[in-house]
Amino acid sequence: MTAIQTIDVSKTFVNHKALDKVSIEVGEQNIFGLLGPNGAGKTTLIRIINMISAKEEGEVLFYGHPIQREDIGSIGYLPEERGLYKKMKVGEQALYLARLKGLSKSEATKKLKVWFEKFEITSWWNKKVEELSKGMQQKVQFIVTVMHNPKLLIFDEPFSGFDPINVNLLKDEILRLRNEGATIIFSTHNMASVEELCDHIALINNSKMILSGEIHDIKQRFKSNVFEIVYHSPKELLMDTTTFEVIHSESKNSEHIAKIRLKDNISSNALLKQLLPQVEVVSFREILPSVNDIFIQEVNKK
Q: What is the CATH number of the domain that holds 133?
């Protein structure tokens, strides 16, 4: 089932086209990476989904129906610009925000206790927000975003300000939330996290959708038929240059590593057939482009 869908959504600010007929479709219980350079339109689309900004054209469907104000209670949104009140105490503020999400005081207190213990921040309850580091504040913001168990979670740069240990803590929680039924839209510039967490991605550039699909399918689409071979002597490979191109080679101790491009739809079996009479193959793998490589390639297209 589709959790959230935008159909030809457009938005203009003064003379700037922020979104130009952008369509995305996020399947239920998926982690969906919303990618793009600064100013591409990602945050505008997120704000439209949250009904913070109004669209000019197009539709936003939430579980198959046009999104309405009452649906917002089923969405948890962690914006890039955090919004905690710095003079309030942490526990007091968390309770207040939980009540805004429809939880009773007793239910909110019970859930917050569990989350504060999990994140090892119980001692912060009576501290003012301004006394906390940026990373500590973001832990609190993450908790109040997810604690009411929303069907849809939207995280905009959720790892900003976190050290590697806390990044892993949040990644584990995001995966757990997905496994327990949540659908997640995840916007970040950290492409390694996209590779690790996301099922599908969409890339927006200059207000337009330029790429979308499952990560595996997109990598297959952008592959360049390059294989990495690790082998034992001899150092030099004798290759048929009409069908194969050695684009890189190096030696590490007793092993040699070569990257070979296949030409004209030649199969990987044909490459192995050339190699096996010459060398002892230790490993053989196709090199697929990373999400970061694809991002840079597509954004830099003229």
A: 3.40.50.300
